[in-house]
Structures are given as C-alpha cells and as structure tokens.
Amino acid sequence: xxxxxxxxxxxxxxxxxxxxxxxxxxxxxxxxxxxxxxxxxxxxxxxxxxxxxxxxxxxxxxxxxxxxxxxxxxxxxxxxxxxxxxxxxxxxxxxxxxxxxxxxxxxxxxxxxxxxxxxxxxxxxxxxxxxxxxxxxxxxxxxxxxxxxxxxxxxxxxxxxxxxxxxxxxxxxxxxxxxxxxxxxxxxxxxxxxxxxxxxxxxxxxxxxxxxxxxxxxxxxxxxxxxxxxxxxxxxxxxxxxxxxxxxxxxxxxxxxxxxxxxxxxxxxxxxxxxxxxxxxxxxx
Length: 285
Ligand SMILES: [Zn+2]
What we know:
CATH superfamily: Ribonuclease Z/Hydroxyacylglutathione hydrolase-like
Structural class: alpha/beta
Bound molecules: zinc ion
Strand content: 25-35%
Number of strands: 14
Radius of gyration: 17 Å
Number of helices: 8
C-alpha cells in the first residue's frame, strides 16, 4: 500500500490523502542516547525499508501538500550530495530509493491531481526526504518554521542535514511560518493556515531546530497530527522514546507537548513520516 485516504462529509477539510514519495532505510529508530556521530560511524545494521510519506489535504480553500518527499534526483545526480567526508556521512546515515510509481507526479496523478493543482506547501523540516521535489512550486506559498529557515543562513547548513545548494531550488521561495500565540494545550505558539481552526501548524522542534507538525481537525472524524520525523513510531513517542537524531532534550520536551495535546484530543492519531503503519492508521474508521 503506497496511498491511503480519509474522507469526511462535514467541514472545510474534505479528504486527507497519505502518499508515498520514496523509501528509506534509516539506521537509528529507537533512540538509546547514542551520539549521532558515533552510531553513524559504527552501526552495522540498517532498518527495513520504510516509506517516505507526505500528505495531500483537500480543503475547500485549496490543496495543501505537507512535505514533498525524496527527489529521484538524489539517486541519479552524482552531485546531489556534498563531496568528501560529509557526503560519505550522508550516505552512511540512511539509504533511499524512489520507484517510478512513487514520484510526486505519479502519486498525485493516482489521486487525480497534477502538480499545478497544489495551492500551498508546508514542510515539516528541511531534510532532503521531506523537502525534495520543490522545483515545480515557484508560484505557490511554501512554508517552513523560522528556526528551520535560519539553518540556511548558517555557514554550513549541510552539517545540519540541509542540502542548501538545492533547498530551496531556483525560483522557489520558502516563507517563514508566522507563528503567533496559540490556544492549544502544550503549544504556546501556532499558525492557523486558513483561520478556521482546521489546519494548524505547530512548532515541534528537536529532530531539527525548526521541525513542525500539522494538526488537522474535522467535525466528524478523528483529529490527525502529521509529525514528520518527531518520531518514527508513535508508540515509542508515547513512551517518551525519541530517535538519536537531533537535540535530545528538545525532542523530549516536544514529546511532552504532544502528550498534553493528546490528553486534550484523546482520539488524536499521530502520523509519522516513516511509520509503515501510518497509512493504515489514516484510513481506519
Ligand atoms: Zn525523514
């Protein structure tokens, strides 16, 4: 299964589609507190292939794409990664593949959409498997959290997992999400995308400094929280276990915030970008 859909009949959000934009074998899923450089150099085992998920949300005011997946260019273009030691580290941390039916164009076409139908893009973070395939979006707003965009201003964004030579591509503008003081338990800041409370962007830092999640609320269906790489497995997140990628203290603080939100919204479904069970959870009644 590479796609799943949750449809509703009431409210501005008509459907939420999960799509698969490539596959990844990360090395570190269940964090043990090991420093990233150490496991990058020493770990010999790889996880099974996991999906790279993105989400297409049909809202009455537009078609929103949350994350843009892994680009097939990462496999065909020899210059996609930095050279030297840094490129070697990139290749050691995760492996990717993008089968032909998992390109962004193919996955949208299977839903009856074309690239030009997308009206808004939001990026959970700027790592390549969440912010690839941005080239077509020269005329639509593309949002990322301010703290994530700040990485592009650093002298070596690549050290933070951001391929700044490619993100953003020429002609594409990534706009900082204008977070304002929020009303959701656990989250002092948020941004309500259409001002109707149905699609709310939340800062969920830790995996990267500006990681963010999208809360989807519908009157007749379970709320959804698209968390990107805050966790690879929501069951681990509920136990307070986070991957050894990012800043551990911040990751644990985000886990606490999400737990507070879950108390407020008991039927909340957390959908992680590399969770092989996320599409089933999305489609469940
Ligand atoms: Zn990822």
